[in-house]
Amino acid sequence: MLAYTIRRLLMLIPVLIGMSLLVFSIIHLIPGDPAKTILGEKASPEVLENMREELGLNDPLLIQYKNYMLGLVQGDLGTSIRTKVPIAKEMKPYLAGTMELTFFAMAFALFIGVNAGILAAWKQNSWFDYMAMLIALIGVSMPVFWLGLMEQWVFAQNLHWLPSIGRSSIINPVHPISHFYIIDTILVGDFGGLLEVLKHLILPSIALGTIPMAIIARMTRSSMLEVMRSDYIRTAKAKGVKEFFLVYKHALKNAFIPILTVVGLQTGLLLGGAVLTETIFAWPGIGKYLYDAISIRDYPVIQSGILIIAFIFVMINLIVDLLYSAIDPRIRYR
Amino acid sequence: MTVENILEVNQLSTVFHSDEGEIPAVNEVSFELKPGETLGIVGESGSGKSVTSLSIMGLVSKQNADVKGSILYKGKELTSLSEKRMRAIRGNEIAMIFQEPMTSLNPVYTIGNQLVEAVILHMSLSKKEAEKRAIDMLKLVGIPRAEEIMNEYPHQLSGGMRQRVMIAMAMSCIPSVLIADEPTTALDVTIQAQILDLMRKLKDDFNTSILLITHDLGVVAEMCDRVIVMYAGKVVEEADVRTIFHDPKHIYTKGLIQSTPRLSEDRDRLYSIPGNVPSITNMPKGCSFAPRCANAMDICYEKMPALISIDDGHKARCWLYDEGIRNGEGKNSE
Ligand SMILES: Nc1ncnc2c1ncn2[C@@H]1O[C@H](COP(=O)(O)OP(=O)(O)OP(=O)(O)O)[C@@H](O)[C@H]1O
Ligand SMILES: [Mg+2]
Q: How many CA atoms, within 13 angstroms, populate the side-chain half-sphere of residue B163?
C-alpha cells in the first residue's frame, strides 16, 4: 500500500510536467500580441513593451519555459498583473475558502445523500422511496443560482436566520492564520467567531451540495439495491443478523465503491471553483478569484489557477484510488 | 406435536407474486425431521428445493411472496413468530449453508470478522472468547493455519476452504438443524467428498439433524437416512434411502435413479427422462408429471393424485397406487 502510494506520487511527476507545459502555452496561444490583449488596443508602445518585459515574453521560448518551471518548483506561481502580488500568496486565502466550502458542501451531500439512498433502497417502493427519488430528480436538475437566491430570500431576507454573504461577520472579522476559518477561530479560542463562520457556511454549502447530494442519493440507492440481492446478504440473514447491521454493515461497505467514484468526481468539480455559488454568496473562493482574473485578462493568475485546479483533480483521483483499496480488499494495487 | 420430530413441516406452500402472475414455487409440502437424522430433498432444478428451505428459515421476502402452512420447530410454530424471535433462531438453532461458496461470504470483511459476528449474535461471549471459539471452529472443520485465516478475506481462499468456513460459521452455535442447500454442487469431486465427510462427522459429534438439498443421488446414497423427492413444487415420493434406490414407486423417481450414471452400465445409453419440467406458472391440469409419464392414464390429466401411503414411511404421489384405480377402474391409456 505504501509502496503503491509512493509509486503513484512519482507517477504524478510526468502528469504535472505535462500540465505545466499546457498551462505555459496558454499565453503563447493567444493570437497576436499577448501584451496588447491584456492592455487593450489603445495602450502606448512603451507600456506594451513594459508588459512584455514583465511577462518575460522577450526571452527565447526555451528560456521562458525554464524560468517558468524553475519558479514552479520553488512554489513561485508568478505575479499578478493587477495587484503585483505573488500569486501563490494571493491565492492562498481564496483556495482555503473554496476548500472549506467544498468540505461542508460534500459533508452535507454525503450525509443526506447516502442515508436517503440507503433508506430508499431499504424501503424500496415505499412512499419514502418515491419521495426521496422525486426530490433527488428535482435536485439534479436544480439551477444552482436559483437555489442560492431562493435560500437567501427565505432564510436571510425574510426569516433573518442566517447570513447571506461572506465567510464571517464584518463586525468581528476572523484573524487569519491558516485561512481555514474553522481552524483559525478554534486556534484562538474564539467560539463566538466559530459559530458565525459556521452560520455563514450553511446556505452556500446547501446550494453547492444539492446536486452532488441528489446524484449520491440515486447512486446509493441503485448500488444498495444490487448489493442487497447478493448471496452474502442472504448468508448474513441466515446467521440472524439484524436488519440494521445487514444494511449498514454488510451492504453499505460493498455498495460504497460506485458512491466513492461519484464523490471523487463531484469534489473535484466543486473544488475547481463554484463560480456561481461563490458569486451569489460573495464567497471569496478560487472560482471568484479566477473569474475576476479572467475578466481583466490577468494571464499569470489564470495560468496558475488552472494549474492548481488540475493539480487538485489529480490529487483527488489518487485519494479516491487509495480509498477504493481501503474499502475493498480485492482491489489491491501492486 | 411429537417430541421425536425436531422439525415438522405441514402443508407448506410458498407463492411468489410476479409480474407474470402467481408462481407456486412450493405446493403443500410436508415432511418431518428427526433428531440426528439426515433427510435428503432431491429434484430437478426449479422443483422448489431452495424455496422450501428459505421458507423454513423465514427468509422469503414477505413483500412479494406468501408462505402458508405450518413449520414446527421443537413443537414451536415458526410461521407466527415475530421477526425478532425468528432472528434468535436463525443461525442459532437452525443454521444454513448455501450452494455458492464463492459468493456466500462477504468480500469486504475478514473471515474472522464474519465468524465472530455469528458467534456473538447468539452466545453471550466476550470478543476474545468469541475469537477463540471461531478459531476452534476453523480447526474443527479442518482448516490449516486457522489463526492466520481469521485475518484473511474470502477471495484469498479456495472454494473448498470457503465452504469449510461456511460450515464452521453454520456450526459455530451448535444448531439443532442444519439446512444444507447443495453444499457441494460447486466444488470438484475430491473436495466434495471431503466436505461430505466433514458434515457427517459434525453431525455425529453434535447430533445435529441435517436437511440436505441436492440433485445428486450419489450424495443422497452416501449421506441420507430418508429422502423426499420433489417435482414442480410438490413432494412426489418419500421413503427411506434403501427403499428409494431399491424400490422406487413414482416414475419420476425411477427416472432420476436411472439417469444417474453408474460404472457398471453401458455408457452410451444413459437414461434421460423424456420431456421437460412444466413451466411453474403454466401447470398442466391434473398430475404435473403426466405429460412426461409413460404410464399416464386419463385420470392423470384430470386430477392431481394425493400422496398415497404404500408402506410404512413410503409414500408416492401417483394414481397407480390409489386403491380405487388399482381395483380395476379406468386403466385405459394403452
Ligand atoms: N424470489 C423469487 N421470485 C419469484 N420466483 C422465484 C423466486 N425464487 C424462486 N422462484 C421460483 O421458484 C421456483 C423454484 O425455485 P428453487 O430455487 O426452489 O428451485 P430449486 O429446486 O432449488 O432449483 P435448483 O436445483 O436450480 O437450485 C423456480 O421456478 C423459481 O423461478
Ligand atoms: Mg436451489
A: 24
